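Structure ticket #2291
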Amino acid sequence: MSPEATIPAEEPALLQQLVADYLRVLANERGASTHTLRAYERELTNFAAYIVATWGRDQTPDRIDHIHIRAYLATLYDRGLSKASAARALASIRSWFKWLARTGRVQQNAAALVSTPRLPKHLPRVPSIEQMNKVVDTVDDEAASWPARDRAILELLYGCGVRNAELTALNLRDIQWANEVILVKGKGQKQRYVPLGDAAAEALRAYLAERSARLAAAGPQALASSRFVTPALFLNLRLRGIGKPGGEARLTTRSVARIVKRLAILRGLSSDVHPHTLRHAFGTHLLEEGADLRAIQELLGHERLSTTQRYTQLTTAQLTQVYDRTHPRAK
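Resolution: structure written out below.
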């Protein structure tokens, strides 16, 4: 073999190529989030690798049936994965096969014949209205590194019910002051308007004043320079990335989770509190105060009413506790 000759790289197996094609569809046509893409890539890549390793590189999707998929799920259990993990893997495989069927690569969705593992129902613990008010109203220098920002974060998570990823994706222009609403970009690039309450608006104004001051201090004539302009609503404490090409100094979801957990623990809440806990509290407390379930569905951006109905279960569970504790015939 001459020095110039090279060994050609092995072509990816057909299944692996189809996984890559589907991920591009999710990213480009359906606007899937980075988190969703990573999850689908992990689950489908592992499934395709299992099929190739077990039945060979020439295996085509039309030759995969429900028995193959059940066998793969069995390997997940053998590795010690939970039913929830197996259910996530199956959901990804079903979605992939649905696309394969729609594009004519298979006759039917083989994954549709596989039952979802029965999962135990765990209702999230939701702080009371009094507990949430205490957390939001007592954000100070002792508890927070940037109190004005962190209070505004809590106001939007609890007062508007937005998801963590929705919060960090917010830009300045999404706050529509004249209409007293926030434009929220939800899952799958779906948009919705959420009312901006008085408390949240007050917290945002206080934060925005400090935001402008910090940007002005970031460099000489910073506000007049496009290098120091960022569309991001919530910025990280040290303005990391500001002034660099494409740098927005945008706060990350991981940082928001740390902020929420720290503030909650300092105010006596459970250590398992996270940003989504505040979203659950938003929906639960609306329902407890008499809000219509469909209105809550719209505010939360749930695609299906059945998702919102989980809050009915939460409230029913709380009522049952009250009944068992107080009614004479329950004892």
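Closing remark: Confidence is low (pLDDT under 50) at residues 1-11.
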